[in-house]
Amino acid sequence: MDNSPPHKKPKIEEHDFKPKLEFDEVESEMVFSPPSNNKTNRLCPYLDTINRQYLDFDFEKLCSVSLTRINVYACLVCGKYFQGRGTNTHAYTHSVAESHHVFLNLQTLKFYCLPDNYEIIDSSLDDIKYVLNPTFTEEHIRNLDASTKLSRAIDGSLYMPGIVGLNNIKANDYCNVVLQALSHVQPLRNYFLREENYSKVKRPPGDSAYLLVQRFGELLRKLWNPRNFKAHVSPHEMLQAVVLWSKKRFQFTQQGDPIDFLSWFLNALHRALNGTKKKDSSIIHRSFLGSMKIYSRKIPPTELDDKQKKSLLATEEYLETVTETPFLYLTCDLPPPPLFIDEFRENIIPQVNLYQLLNKFNGQSEKEYKTYKENFMKRFEITRLPSYLILYIKRFTKNTFFVEKNPTIVNFPVKNVDFGEFLTDEIKAKHKNTIYDLVANIVHDGEPLKGTYRVHILQKSTGKWYEMQDLHVIDILPQMITLTEAYIQVYELRS
């Protein structure tokens, strides 16, 4: 019998498998050490779950659950927007419930993995950042009109930057055509493509007009983005700024008139950029502002006899007055369409030459203008031509009962329109060049107050013309453009 003491189990010290940490040396360093300056790649195992075809940053940046604009994150798996990333926030709940882990902060452009809540630093995500906030260098902007390079969208379709469709949300095609036309006015485009050009504009506190400038800049950068995920853009945020700032005068749920929108939009942008009445006070006036003299004289009432008319004409009230006024666009009046059908029992579509319409501005031809109690004869003389000339061809006339549309077709050349023919020799001598080329042509199809709008755009690098109607973009022969019912035209002065 063995009397030796029972075999004791060796005592295992806790520190054998858990190394003891000196709090002051190691733990404190682990928890409180400041982050190092050189960025380390924080690898995330979920990057392959990102669906780039679902990402759409054109819509308003607000949480899809709480509708708040503060701290909004985009889920890069399903493309929805959620607020916050702390526990119990909508983004955190979504990440746990749906197992969608990669999120992008729409304000700071930082990527995070939820619910683990760490920042992802990975250069493969730079293309997503660029789609959300495209940036352009000055060299890139200089080469925009020379580049013939096509871009490829995520779905494999090819598109030309600047020639992309704009989504029609309901009835905002009248806004889309104006925005497309303005996006091809070179100085305006170049100014808005670089945010630093207008970011230092000081506005009074609480002023929302600057929002219009920001949204227009964002829209132009998206239209000219060479690395977009899709070959079209939705002007949702831009239009919401328009509805807000025009006090609901322009809606995207009902059809409007592009000339009203264009006139309001150019003036609103001018004021938001702190523009004054001076010629060079904003990019809008530098591009579009011209000036003219208006000669106006009052006509005596028709019921008076010749003697009374003669004595009235001698009074000061009936003498000719001259006023110098600036303009952003010129209104051309169409001749009235024929009332009767011709001998072949059909209405022929009347045609008129553009130069006939422009004779209104030669300083000689007079036109009668009626107010409810007085009549005036007016003539117009252009004194300064702008570098971009907008012509508005007045097709719609309102009478007591309804709005009528004049279907007259205007014959116009696409190149080499010489506006010098309508200037006096003295004024013409002040202009180095008076030859203009068409860059955009807005067309109305269908009935007045209903109908649709489309726009023809010249792509400068290739010299090709494109027709854009909402999301539809097709190339078109320049000969076909002159057969359309032109409504607004933008001409560029040859440099």
TrEMBL record:
Entry-linked Pfam families: UCH (PF00443), zf-UBP (PF02148)
Localisation: Nucleus
GO BP terms: cell division; mRNA processing; RNA splicing
Occurrences of domain UBP-type (ranges): 42-139
Top enzyme category: hydrolase
Domain USP: 164-494
Keywords from the named record: Cell cycle, Cell division, Hydrolase, Isopeptide bond, Metal-binding, mRNA processing, mRNA splicing, Nucleus, Phosphoprotein, Spliceosome, Ubl conjugation, Ubl conjugation pathway, Zinc, Zinc-finger
Catalytic activity, reaction form: Thiol-dependent hydrolysis of ester, thioester, amide, peptide and isopeptide bonds formed by the C-terminal Gly of ubiquitin (a 76-residue protein attached to proteins as an intracellular targeting signal)
Source species, domain of life: Eukaryota
InterPro entries in the cross-refs: Papain-like_cys_pep_sf, Peptidase_C19_UCH, Ub_carboxyl-term_hydrolase, USP, USP39, Znf_RING/FYVE/PHD, Znf_UBP
Entry GO terms, CC: spliceosomal complex
Ubl conjugation as UniProt keyword: yes
GO molecular function list: cysteine-type deubiquitinase activity; zinc ion binding
Signal peptide: none
EC number: 3.4.19.12
Annotated PANTHER family: U4_U6.U5 TRI-SNRNP-ASSOCIATED PROTEIN 2, UBIQUITIN CARBOXYL-TERMINAL HYDROLASE
Subunit record text: The U4/U6-U5 tri-snRNP complex is a building block of the precatalytic spliceosome (spliceosome B complex). Component of the U4/U6-U5 tri-snRNP complex composed of the U4, U6 and U5 snRNAs and at least PRPF3, PRPF4, PRPF6, PRPF8, PRPF31, SNRNP200, TXNL4A, SNRNP40, SNRPB, SNRPD1, SNRPD2, SNRPD3, SNRPE, SNRPF, SNRPG, DDX23, CD2BP2, PPIH, SNU13, EFTUD2, SART1 and USP39, plus LSM2, LSM3, LSM4, LSM5, LSM6, LSM7 and LSM8.
UniProt family annotation: Belongs to the peptidase C19 family.
Protein name, entry field: Ubiquitin carboxyl-terminal hydrolase 39
Organism the protein comes from: Cryptolaemus montrouzieri
